[in-house]
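Running low. Invent one:
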Amino acid sequence: MSHDLARAPLASMLDRRAFLALVGAAGAATLAGGSALAAEPKRGGTLRLSALANPSSLDPATGGSGFDHCYLWTIYDTLVEWDYDTLKPKPGLAKWSFPDPKTMVLDLQPNVKFHDGAPLDAEAVKFNLDRNRQDQRSNVKADLTSVEDVVVTGPLQVTLKLKNADTALPAILSDRCGMMISPAAVKTHGAASDRNPVGAGPWKFVSWADNQKVAVTRNDNYWRKDRGFVDAIEFNIIPEQATGLRSVVAGQNDMAFALPARLKPVIQRAKELQVVSAPTLYCIQFYFNTKRKPLDDLKVRQAINFAIDRDAFVRATMAGLGEAATMTLPKSHWAWSEAASKLYPHSVDKAKQLLEEAGLGKGFELTVGSYTDQDSVRRAEVLQEQLGKAGIRLKFTRGTVAEISANFFNQGYDMLLSAWTGRPDPSMTYALGFDKGAYYNASREATDELSDLIRRSRESEDLKERAAVFDRIQQITMGQALSAPIAFQYELDALSPKVKGYKPDLLGKPKFEFVSLE
């Protein structure tokens, strides 16, 4: 018998935006069918997963792919955690407080050790935070621009001195910036830490065979006993998701996650499988390098946005299991901007007019990075046809997620067709994607006004005040067409009947800390 664990939106019970404002989070949903955590989970066994992409790095500071998180969360604990349904921050390795707007104090859990036996103490946290914001190889500097200094104020206490108030810091420390890596391991391995990760999470690193498998094993000294139930996890890297799903049907793997909507009927026909479906912040989009001609012309970027038929894209590539994206946040988000959402109604005629004004009325070609899996190819074909109607020809280069993404962000193509996989706080999305010098901003440029607004979006804890700032931010990022959001993809996972305790989260990036095997 099929077990459907689909999360139903709370909008049927109350106004969704009102609920999100109430909880101060990016989204909400409920998990139907009860929780497998009610019973005492069984310990032991190896959880075998079909994973879409090879990691870009297993060092949280240096990776460049949003797909890395499913690996990283097994190896690393974070200073702050978030609620699965709402992304509201809660204590993890640390509890936090703000004695004043420019001071954040972190009080650490005692007796926590890294996998190499070194203590996870205040000195280790200072090392990590300083490395994240200062190291040449760090890709998360933009998250910590508000931090002036990190001071050890006790064996288990760290104080962050801030340049300005930053209420997003708890959420920021629930992501890559809050993943603690062993200082001793970094000093030993240097740049090779990318492939020799040493954290303090529920599992410790065993091996990584490129484009084949990543393996982790239980951390017997893990400080929390209410999670980390399986003895080991094997990520079997299968870029073609239909093949990954077949591996679950055949019993070779226990779970395939982030599946495309076209495979939902296949899951449902395999009646023994569990189905998980839930809304996420996962946004498929065109990333632009606005330094490269002709994308340095605003009219060209706007023309691309007008040429995209987002509703048709959702129908053609997601079987309707998604939402047209008019900005980098979904309509249910508390920081969604109605004004920004109206900027680009689908119009081929408007796109052609703008290209005429830009001197490109006869058509032109853009180079685009994309991936080899069937769904990426289908998305590319649909967009190729849509933009072609306006005279915009797309020339695709395809490869693995890690390779193509790295090439684009190192100035390899005009555009990248990929996803923004979401962050716990919207200020992180705009800082990492659009601020000056940010890794995911291929041009590395931003106006002083936009940078100032991103900083201001973190000053207040009042959601209405923050939403007003984000309204202006989104009118700038969309008005200047700094990207072309296309659609939000819902999470879709297939699980074997023996997998218990899995729960989806709003980021759409799976965690396995509560999973057990029957």
About this structure: The chain has three domains: 3-52+202-278+491-517, 82-187, 283-489. The domain at 82-187 is CATH 3.90.76.10 (Dipeptide-binding Protein; domain 1). The two ends are 16 Å apart (CA to CA).
